[in-house]
Design brief:
Blueprint lengths: L1 H18 L2 E10 L1 H10 L10 H9 L1 E8 L11 E10 L2 E9 L2 E6 L1 H8 L16 H5 L4 E4 H6 L19 H18 L1 E6 L4 E9 H12 L15 H6 L4 E9 L2 E8 L12 E8 L11 E2 L2 H8 L22
Parallel strand pairs: 6-12
Antiparallel strand pairs: 1-2, 1-11, 2-3, 3-4, 4-5, 5-6, 7-8, 8-9, 9-10, 10-11
Length: 332
C-alpha cells in the first residue's frame, strides 16, 4: 500500500498546484564551481573553449525564478488566459536579468556589464552610442525598458500580419496532451520506486528512485510519435544519445507541506560517473508567488526605429562601394 499511497499523495499534490491562479517556481543548481569545471573537463572541450572560472561560479550560484499569473486555474488555462509572467536570473551579488510580461507590454532589464564579462563579449559604454540608440542606452545602464508586443507585430517584427512571417508554431491539442500525460504517468508508475518518510511537523517526504537511462528512454519513446507537433527547437534526444546516457539510479526528494508540493530536490551526482564531483543536484521550490507588476519608469524601446537608425547611417546607402571591401572576393 505504501507505493500506491505515495503515488496518490504526489498526484494530489500536483493537482493542487494546477488549481492555483498564481504560482512561482525557483530553480537552483545545487553544485559548486569545481564540480562544473570537472564536468566540463570530462567533455573534452577544444583548447580555449573551457568554461571560464567566472562562468562556472555564476552558474553554481545563480537562481532562476519564474512566476505565472492566470485568470483561471493553471490546469485550465490557455495562452489567452495568462495575464502576467515574470522571470528573473539572480546571483548572490544581485539580479543579472529580468523579464516581465504584463498585458500587451514586455519589460526587460539586465546587468549587461556583468553578462558581457562572463561571456567574453564586453559591451560599449552607453555614452558612446549614437542618438538613434534611444532607450537602448537604458538597456546598457541596467534600467527597465518596455515594448508593446502588438505594435511590434503590426510593424512586422515577429507579427502575424507580416506575409513573410513564419506560420504559427505547432502545438499539441488538449486531447493529445491529456493522452500523453496519462502515458507518461504510467511509465513513471512502472519504473519509479516511491517511498514515504515523515518530516518535521506538517511536512512529509516522498522519495522517487529510478534508473536514469531506462526512465528517459521510455518517456522519450512515448513523446517521439508526437515530435512533429512539438514547438521548434524542442529536439528530442536520439537513440544514440539515450544509449550513451548513464543508467545510474537517480533519486528525487519531494517535500509536501500540508499535502501541497513545496520543494523537489534531485540528486544527479551519480550521473557524473568518473568526473570528480562534490555535489550535483537540482532544487525546485514552489510557492503561491506574488502578482507580477509593471515596473515604474520603463522607457519605450522602439526596436524597429532603433534598428533602422543604427544600420542606415552614413556610408550605408545603396551605392556604397562594398566591392572594394576585404570580404568582396571571399568565397563562402
Amino acid at each position: 500500500m505504501e507505493q500506491l499511497s505515495a503515488g496518490q499523495k504526489l498526484d494530489k499534490a500536483f493537482d493542487k498546484l494546477g488549481e492555483k491562479k498564481t504560482l512561482s517556481f525557483e530553480l537552483d543548481l545545487d553544485t559548486d564551481a569545481a564540480t562544473l569545471k570537472a564536468l566540463d573537463a570530462k567533455s573534452d572541450p577544444e583548447p580555449g573553449d573551457e568554461i571560464p572560472d567566472e562562468a562556472a561560479k555564476l552558474l553554481s550560484d545563480a537562481k532562476i525564478t519564474l512566476t505565472v499569473e492566470s485568470k483561471k486555474p493553471l490546469t485550465e488555462s490557455g495562452e489567452k488566459d495568462i495575464v502576467g509572467m515574470a522571470m528573473k536570473v539572480s546571483s548572490p551579488d544581485g539580479d543579472l536579468a529580468e523579464y516581465r510580461m504584463i498585458g500587451d507590454y514586455v519589460y526587460v532589464r539586465a546587468d549587461v556589464d556583468t553578462i558581457g564579462k562572463l561571456t567574453g563579449s564586453p559591451v560599449p559604454p552607453a555614452d558612446e552610442l549614437p542618438p538613434e540608440a534611444g532607450a537602448f542606452k537604458d538597456v546598457l545602464q541596467g534600467k527597465w525598458v518596455k515594448f508593446n508586443v502588438k505594435e511590434m507585430e503590426k510593424a512586422g517584427l515577429g507579427g502575424q500580419e507580416d506575409e513573410d512571417s513564419p506560420s504559427p508554431a505547432p502545438s499539441l491539442d488538449a486531447k493529445t496532451q491529456k493522452k500523453l500525460m496519462k502515458s507518461l504517468r504510467e511509465v513513471v508508475a512502472r519504473e519509479v520506486k516511491l517511498k514515504t518518510a515523515d518530516g518535521d511537523g506538517d511536512t512529509e517526504h516522498i522519495t522517487a528512485t529510478a534508473p536514469f537511462r531506462t526512465l528517459m528512454s521510455k518517456m522519450i519513446g512515448e513523446i517521439r510519435p508526437l515530435a512533429k507537433d512539438l514547438p521548434p527547437g524542442m529536439d528530442l534526444p536520439t537513440d544514440k544519445d539515450l544509449k550513451d546516457a548513464p543508467n545510474a539510479k537517480v533519486t528525487a526528494d519531494f517535500t509536501l507541506k500540508n499535502g501541497e508540493l513545496s520543494e523537489v530536490n534531485v540528486d544527479l551526482a551519480k550521473l557524473a560517473e568518473t568526473a570528480k564531483v562534490k555535489k550535483l543536484g537540482l532544487t525546485l521550490r514552489m510557492s503561491d508567488g506574488t502578482k507580477p507588476t509593471a515596473p515604474a519608469g520603463a522607457k519605450v524601446l522602439d526596436l524597429k526605429g532603433m534598428m533602422q537608425g543604427l544600420f542606415s547611417g552614413p556610408g550605408m546607402t545603396d551605392d556604397a562601394e562594398f566591392g572594394d571591401a576585404e570580404l568582396g572576393d571571399e568565397e563562402f
